[in-house]
Design a protein that fits this description.
Blueprint lengths: L1 E2 L6 E2 L49 H25 L8 H33 L4 E6 L2 H40 L3 H31 L4 E5 L2 E4 L2 E4 L6 E8 L6 E10 L2 E10 L5 H15 L1
Antiparallel strand pairs: 1-2, 3-4, 4-5, 5-6, 7-8, 8-9
Helix pairs in contact: 1-2, 3-4
């Protein structure tokens, strides 16, 4: 005998949707078009839930950043020629003004290049392209997720800080014995540790604030996801999706998308967490399987 996990209504053994509330009783996890030979990529099919739209009303923050940097870059480009226009002597600050403006132009071009691509990705995700799942949450459910996400992020950043700080201390001690001025080395290492501690402290709290002020919803697509106001993408600029897993120990349970992107020292890893709504654990398992099958 089978019962609906949403309203408790008794179901027929082969029922796919509850006759009482319309909720799906099972999910289509795999496209069986070529399952026998497995020569095609398996694709998860998201169930449709009556009365729910997949459109998330969220401003494209990346596009706003691009517009701001267009203005900064244009002003900086003009600023390069200001010393010559105003006949400011190079040794009296003219060279410094031109150099600073030129540096801002280069930074602006990089920021515009990166965030234009990110803005286009977010536009596609907001349009529902490649939609895998759209979930909405009860307020209590969302609050528990926000707190759990903060704790996970805080522990992760703290451990990363201790790792970097430990390596820095060891390298600093070794260098202190090899140079004539160990005080300078120790000051540099101390400054580096302080510098690393700032994002380790601020990033989890920034994330907490952003999620607290978000709508209780999540949209998962083939190339990225949106959780509240948090946007994650794993395509373009050398980014890739490394692993998708379900954290069964968290409360609420969460799908964790681990992705990485090139950085100055190897690859930078990020974790995007999506809370699993009540009664959706089977769907969450299917989503994780879909992404992991896609990677193999």
């Amino acid at each position: 005998m089978k019962f609906c996990t949403h309203c408790g209504n008794q179901l027929h053994s082969d029922a796919r949707f509850c006759e009482s509330c319309g909720a799906p009783t099972s999910i289509a996890t795999i496209n069986l078009a070529d399952q026998a030979g497995k020569s095609q990529t398996n694709r998860y099919v998201s169930p449709s839930t009556p009365g729910i739209t997949s459109e998330i009303k969220l401003p494209n923050a990346s596009r706003r950043i691009v517009k701001v940097w267009y203005i900064i870059t244009l002003i900086s480009l003009i600023g390069i020629f200001v010393p010559s226009w105003l006949e400011i002597d190079g040794m009296s600050g003219g060279f410094g003004i031109s150099f600073l403006c030129g540096f801002l132009v280069m930074v602006g071009l990089i920021v515009i290049f990166v965030y234009r691509a990110r803005a286009k990705q977010m536009d596609r995700i907001l349009s529902g392209e490649g939609k895998i799942a759209y979930w909405q949450y009860a307020q209590e459910e969302w609050v528990r997720f926000v707190i759990a996400d903060f704790e996970e992020e805080r522990v992760m950043k703290r451990n990363l800080f201790f790792l970097i700080a430990g390596i820095s201390v060891i390298v600093g001690i070794v260098l202190a014995f090899l140079v004539e001025e160990p005080t300078v080395i120790l000051m540099i290492i101390s400054g580096l540790i302080v510098l690393v501690s700032i994002p380790a402290y601020l990033v989890p709290r920034y994330r907490l604030k952003k999620l607290k002020n978000s709508r209780a919803e999540a949209l998962v697509t083939e190339n990225g996801l949106i959780v509240g106001k948090m946007f994650h993408s794993w395509i373009g600029m050398g980014a890739r999706l490394d692993q998708v897993s379900i954290n069964m120990e968290a409360e609420p349970r969460m799908i964790e998308f681990t992705y990485s992107m090139p950085a100055r020292h190897g690859r930078q890893t990020e974790v995007a967490r999506v809370p699993v709504p009540q009664g959706k654990i089977d769907e969450a398992v299917a989503i994780a399987e879909h992404f992991n099958n896609r990677r193999t």
